[in-house]
Design a protein that fits this description.
Layout lengths: L1 H25 L6 H15 L4 H26 L16 E9 L4 E6 L2 E7 L5 E2 L4 E8 L2 E6 L3
Parallel strand pairs: 3-6
Antiparallel strand pairs: 1-2, 1-4, 1-5, 2-3, 5-6
Helix pairs in contact: 1-2, 2-3
Amino acid sequence: MILGGAVQMSVFWLVAMVVLLLIEALVPGLISIWFALGALAALIAALFHAPFWLQLVWFLVVSILTLVLTRPLVRKYVNSRVTPTNADMGIGKDAVVTESIDNLQEKGAVRLDGKIWSARMAEENETAEAGETVRVLRIEGVKLIVTKIKQ
């Protein structure tokens, strides 16, 4: 009877591992690989007739440990979806206001590298008048988010 329970748990962990690997294969990005590794560890424990609580501990420990140790590296090297553009080179540069910037009126434009961009101030209540120089903080859609240059 105990042997039958060990076989059932081995089958359970094997099925869990296969399902987690299928999810990993079907979903973009690394989602469940860590839990598949945990299921493999629990499967090995089940094959050695370990009690269920120990199999569960192995599953949780290996899953969490591999997640904690590898997730930062994976996020840095595998899932880097940020694609820099030429526009990103404007961040940190100075631009000249060509149309007064007023967030409340949803208007404003600046000239940056010879091109006219829609612009908004980083601070909601701040404005900039035509002819002033501002610094580009970031790009949101097709608008530059700018701030006044502190003198």
